[in-house]
Amino acid sequence: MIPSMSISPASLAAVERIFERNFVEHQELGASVSVFWRGEEVLRLARGHANREKSRTWNERTLVPVYSATKAPAAATLLLALARRGLTEQTAVREVWPRFSVANATFAQMLSHQCGLAALDQPCSIWDHASVVSAIEAQTPAWLPSHGIGYHPRTFGALLDEAVRRLTGMTLGAYWQSEIAGPMGWEFWMGLPESQWSRVATLVPGRAAKGEVEQGFYKEFMSAGTLTRRAFLSPSGLHAVQEMNDSRVWSAGFPAMGGVATAAALAQFYQAAMGCVDSPITPAIQRALQAKQAQGEDLVLLQPMSFTCGCQLDPVDLDGKKTRHLYGPDLHAFGHPGAGGSHAFGDPSRGLSFAYVMNQMALSVMPGLRSTAMVDALFAE
User: Fold this and answer.
1) What is the DSSP letter of 202?
2) What does the pLDDT read at residue 109?
3) pTM (2 d.p.)
4) Which of 47-69 are b and which e, b meaning 16 or more Cβ less than 10 Å from the residue's Cβ?
5) pLDDT above 60 (res 180)
6) Averaged over 186-206, what is the pLDDT?
7) What pLDDT, on the 0 to 100 scale, is given for residue 5?
8) What is the rounded distance in angstroms from the CA atom of residue 271 to the CA atom of residue 275?
9) Quick check: 18 pLDDT over 90?
10) How far apart are CA 266 and CA 355, in angstroms?
11) Which among 87, 229, 273, 303 could bridge 91 via Cys, Cβ 3.0 to 4.6 Å?
12) Which range, of 103-107, 119-123, 166-170, 363-367, averages the lowest pLDDT?
């Protein structure tokens, strides 16, 4: 039961001030923000330009690639496909995919980055699904489920897509559109039709300061042979931001990183994932998207992470207190960012969802100040 909690008009006004400030202080180019509360949109912001040349105006109907913010809707799609076959996230993957390379792994472990398949040794292209599946089936896991976690930035999409294809005979993107996004009227595609191409903003690459690439995650990412670098380079293809501006990519519907959406659609998805609106996302699927499956030091991202079946939670310490607040103050708030800055989540205790999308990329895999300052303001007393 969602408590009857309102959102302060002052908080919404603060979010709008920060949104406007981003264009002055953080080189924002074009961006949208959407906040929903208990089924109703209470804030919609859209401003800026849809391309570097500033010849196209960004508006509330502008679509943009959201990178890994795609992963949560993709997870919901697989969970729905399982449910309609009488299966759950606790079903063994090999019941659906007999040649899956991790014995005894469940779909819950696959969805929470526990299967050790973040990097593939066998060469394969992201454009050739069959070759990626072959590489997954041949891969020796880098770790076993329950023995570690490591974000699967790219292979996550092929893992889920192959499972959905086996369950439904459809690609994950087609099943998402047919069974969830289409019936709900959400402007979120994993496989964008040509009729929508003219609405898509152009992504502009970001840059990192020298110090940022000399330490931590980026040092590992830039070092040949590391698990971090291998995970972000396999399967091969689509490594440059400019490549994501190709309509072929928008239409391909890669479930790990290929979603194209408005901010409102992302926020609407999290409303459904919390049960704030009627949708094909059942209570059982909602629980799977929200419930913690694994937490620990991530072997790929090199920082503490906490995963549900397809989403992230803020990690907690031994006292049960959050160690960061990407998703606000509530322990049960869940969501998923996208590389470069996009960010979306739901807070079940308040019935609130938030989404931010933009086209000026930052060199980051986790949300930055452009969005986190708005999240902090949203929950400020």
Assistant:
1) P
2) 98
3) 0.94
4) bbbbbeeeebebeeebbbbbbbb
5) yes
6) 97
7) 58
8) 6
9) yes
10) 6
11) 87
12) 363-367
Residue 2 has pLDDT above 50, yes or no: no
For 199, other C-beta atoms within 10 Å of its C-beta total 16
The whole-angstrom separation of Cα 312 and Cα 245 is: 27
The β-bridge partners of 304 are: 297
| DSSP E strands, 276-361 | 294-297, 304-307, 312-313, 334-337, 343-347, 352-358
The whole-chain average pLDDT of the chain stands at 94
CA angle 57, 358, 155 (to 5 degrees): 135
Domain boundaries, the chain: 9-378
Mean pLDDT along residues 5-25: 92
CA 199 remoteness from chain centre:
21
Nearest to 352 by CA among 16, 111, 38: 38
Q: Are 64 and 201 in contact (CB under 8 A)?
A: yes
Question: Residues 27-37: what's their mean pLDDT?
Answer: 97
User: What would the two tokens of residue 340 be?
Assistant: 């470069």
Residue 170, classified by CB atoms within 10 Å of its CB into exposed (0-12), middle (13-18) or buried (19+), is middle
Rounded to an integer, what distance in angstroms lies between the CA atom of residue 266 and that of residue 259?
10
Superfamily of domain 9-378: DD-peptidase/beta-lactamase superfamily (3.40.710.10)
> 104-137: string of b/e by CB count within 10 Å (b at 16+)?
ebbbbbbbbbbbbbbbbeeebebeebebbbebbe
Q: How many CB atoms lie within 10 A of CB 236?
A: 16
| Residue 4, pLDDT above cutoff 60 | no
Using CA atoms, how far residue 326 sits from 12, 193, 379, in Å, is 17, 32, 12
Nearest CA-CA partner of 34 in 265, 214, 207, 222: 265
Instruction: Count the Cβ atoms, other than its own, within 10 Å of residue 380.
Output: 12
- The torsion angles phi and psi of 43, rounded to 5 degrees, stand at -155, 130
CB atoms within 10 A of CB 291: 16
Contacts 24+ apart (CB under 8 A), 311-315: 311/71, 311/72, 311/75, 311/335, 311/336, 312/336, 312/337
- The Cβ-side half-sphere exposure at 107, using a 13 Å CA radius, reads 28
The pLDDT tens digits of the residues spanning 282-321 come to 999 999 999 999 999 999 999 999 999 999 999 999 999 9
